[in-house]
Amino acid sequence: MKSARRLLASLYRAALAGADPEAAVRKALDRNEIARALGAARSVGVFAAGKAAAGMVRGARGLRRSRSLIVLPKGWTARGLPRRDVVFASHPEPDAKSVAAARRAISFFRGFGRGDVILCLVSGGASSLLALPRPGVTLAQKRRAVRRSAESGASILALNRLRTALSAVKGGKLGRQTRARLVTLVLSDVPGDRVASVGSGPTVRRARGDIVRVVGSCGSGLEAAAREARRRGLAVVRRGARLSGEARRCGGLLARKAMRLAPGTLLLAGGETAVTLGSARGRGGRNLELALAAAVALDGAPGVAILAAGSDGRDGTSTASGACVDGRTLRRARRLRLDAERALARHDTHAFFAALGDLFGEGPTGTNVGDWVLAVRG
Q: What is the pTM of this model?
């Protein structure tokens, strides 16, 4: 099973390459419509916000520009970016720096006018990084409302609708602060690649002449993983429905489906599940929870390995992006007196996998298009 785990790790890296934000933006800027809009502009500004903002800005490296503003999560790398243009804010919950970043973004947009173009590079995570509550709502109230919704198992679309309703910059409100033309390139982490939902759509407004394009997504990563798997001689099965709902339920379902695969077959799935938290709250995330539920279903089953990991490199409150499991995971856990059901009930999955040495990932990847589950049999 060590070779199966190495295979899944290499396919995850192929998926990351398929959702590379730098390459995606560079390719998009070569398109005639976007190149003409930028080339005809009196002045060009570059605005980027989200977990993939740094890579997306590097993809626009050769672009003629007058000013830039780049909003990144605290702890993310700003390698190769002008330090004066970079602002760090909080994720997954906004803080005072997120409010300051939103105010600075408003000032940045107001600095451009007719004849100018602002290239807007938006990725998941921007909702928390740009957080200016609408009048009458405090940041603490907004945080509590979003936290309660998340803990009840709300989907990313539902969360972003709530964030937009409570915000002074989301849902196109930031974009309406300027008369400049907006070209928005989106790295999508939401179902259906709905541009107005990625990062709560701060620059997606209904204005004549604006351009909005999705340049990368969960699907583009899965397609790259599938190509690499076929190159290695594997058959590939792609789960048609996007992953959603409770992580624990999805883990069991995918494990049972993986056990029915023909030998030499890879199963691919992508999306974003949820974890409904009760009073017990340990350290972990939706990918770790999905992986542990899969391990429970796989217990004793030979020849199947499953990797569940987030594309952004961070899973909930864990420092890992996910975990890899197989039919021997629970047997190894019992030797160490680890209780899988208790870990699931307490949502304390990080410690479980850390004890086994099965955590996967080493921190931020620089992209964010959702989560991937890869399963191989035989």
A: 0.92
